[in-house]
Amino acid sequence: MMNGDNFQVNPQVAEALASEQAVVALETTILSHGMPYPTNLETALAVERIVRESGAIPATIGIVGGQVTVGLTEAQLEMFATKQGIVKAVERDIPMVVARELDGATTVGSSLAIAAAVGIAVFVTGGIGAVAPQAGQTFDISADLIAIAHYPCITVCAGAKAFMDIAATLEYLETQSAPVVGFQTDTLPLFYCRDSGFSLDWKCDTTEEVASFFRSQMDLGIERGLLLGVPIPKADELEPARLKHAIEVSLEKAQAAGKRGKEVTPFVLAAIKDETGGRSLSANVSLVKNNARVGGDIAVALAVDQIEGARST
Prior knowledge:
This protein is an alpha/beta fold. It has helices spanning 11-18, 29-34, 39-53, 74-82, 94-99, 108-118, 135-138, 143-150, 166-175, 207-219, 240-256, 264-275, 279-312; strands at 8-9, 23-26, 57-64, 67-70, 87-89, 104-106, 122-124, 154-157, 180-183, 202-204, 226-229. The two termini are 28 Å apart.
C-alpha cells in the first residue's frame, strides 16, 4: 500500500479521520476529463455539499503541483475544472506526476490507492473503468478493476461505463475476488441506465446493510474492496435503444480518431453527449449526485459501527 505520510491532507479531513468520523473520498478525473465547464465544477461542489448533508466529510483527491492532496479547497476544485493540460493520472503515473511537480487528476484506481493510504473506507464515483469491448485483441482492461479489488474501500458507483463489456467485467472482478453488490437492485446498473441485464449474487437494501457487509469483511481479516452498484434515479435514465445507438456511433468515432488507452473514455463520453443532445451529461450529473447521497450514508453507518464496536470492547 502507498505511504501517505507525505500527502497534503486537508485539516478537516485529517481531524475527521483521527476521530473516526465519516469521510468520503472523491476523484478529480470527472472534473478535468469527464464533464465540460461549468457543469464539472457545479457538480463537484454539489457532490461535496451532498456528502456534508449526510453527516460525512468530503475528501476530493488530486495532485497539485506534485503534491498528493486529500481534501481539495474550492479554489483547487476550480483549477481542476478549468485548467488545460492536467494529467489524467492512473495509479502507475503518480510517482512521475509527483517527481515532475505536475497537476494530476486522479482516476478511480489512483483515488482508491490514495484513499486507502490515509484510511478512507468509502469512495464515490460515477462509473468505473472496466473491460473494453475489444479486450480480447487489445488487452484493454482498466486498472480501476484491480484497485477496486485490492484496496480496502467501498467503491460506490453506477456500474461500469456504458460502452464497456459488462459480462467480461464481472468475470474479471470475480477472478480478482472482488465482491460486487447491487444497491436495491439484483442486477448491475449500466451507468446511464438502471439495468445492464447482468444478475448479481448479492443485494443490499439499506446503507446500513452495506456497512455491515464491509465491516464483516474487515473483521474476517479480508482487507479487500467491495464494489457497490447504485442505479441512476429512474426519472433520469436514458432509453436503452437510443443509448446503444449513441454508443455504437461514438465508439466508431473513437476508432476512426485513433484514440487509445486513457484517451478513449473522455472522447467517447463527449461523443455520446453529442449523440444524445446533452441528455447523457444530465444523466451523468444525476447519477453522481445520487451516488454521493448513498456513499455519505454508508460512511456515516460505518462510523457508527466503529463507535459501537469500540464501546463493546
